[in-house]
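#struct-help
A.M.: can someone run this one for me? Single chain, 381 residues.
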Amino acid sequence: MKVLLVLCALFALSEGFTRIPLQRGKKLRQLLREKGLLEDFLKQHHYDTSTKYAHSFASQGVSEPLINSLDAEYFGTIYIGTPPQEFSVVFDTGSSNLWVPSVTCQSEACQNHQRFDPSKSSTYHSTETSISIQYGIGSMDGVVGSDTVLVSSLIDTNQQLALSTSEPGPFFTYTKFDGILGLGYPDLAVGGLIPVFDNMMTENVVQQHLFSVYLSQEQNGSVVIFGGIDESYFTGPIHWIPVSYQRYWQIPMDSIIVNGKVIACESGCQTIVDTGTSLVTGPSPDINNIRKVIGATPGQYGQYNVNCNDISSLPDIIFIINGIQFPLPPSAYTEQFGPGDCTSSFQVTNNYLWILGDIFIREYYSIFDRENNRVGLAKSV
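D.P.: on it. Structure tokens below:
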């Protein structure tokens, strides 16, 4: 299993973010009302599952707003069941399962979040099958079922999902989201469950078999768009890179250069574009080379510090992907937590895969094209 958003959120927790009280983002119901979508639908507390209804919203792509929590996690809101029960989830391209806490879960993590009550949904079906999902840090054990899932204005019927009955350890206790909605390929799904986007494609509720992501550093303004591409979020051409292995959104990377010199991924490597990880991660020798070039030194909690006064003069880290240069400026790969307290956003992973997480995606509008099995990258505005 991948190093999901766990690496990044652990980083957030280690920096003292656990002291910040949990805050829920603006409710999706309010956001949809502001957009004039689904007002009558939600008031009636029932689903219109006709294809015609779903297509009326999908023709130009359907946007789901995301809340940015401390640049460490981005989450939006979905509804499960009939009548709908509301949950905040990370839309994660680095995993493929949908899960939320169950009302039967007594773990502290579940008690701190919204929990799904199957007995209150007339459309829920239990399979009585157990499931266990292990992330880099944190895990969940639960049961498999199916129900209707509402994502923005898209109605996903008979969607397979997991309900956690146990979330051991402290990690999920402190996250601001309730669960995870995986947007990776089916091969990555634990238990062979059908991912949400695959079900959307099968049910023809998205006109195009792709989705795109724009991440902002502001609390609001980020978005995932199902079935469409919004040109207002990027400038210049879209560069398309073929997916090299259909599990993660994995693509080949040529090299990483600084000032014209290759400093990492010297003979080519593989990377994944992952909305569920906040940092950029890679093998230890390569990450250490990058840290050396930017003058990062060991600090607390396994982080590497940089001199805040030097940030403006640090070089771009340039990722060469499919022959195209994708520069990451120092403003993107460093973070300041207080006066004189700045850290590097490059971390070591034990996996051979590089991970281009949120710090990269904030710079490049990302398109995940299942129809053609490719990733599109364009410079974000």
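A.M.: thanks! The mean pLDDT is 85.
D.P.: also worth noting: Residues 231-380 form a domain with the Cathepsin D, subunit A; domain 1 fold (CATH 2.40.70.10).
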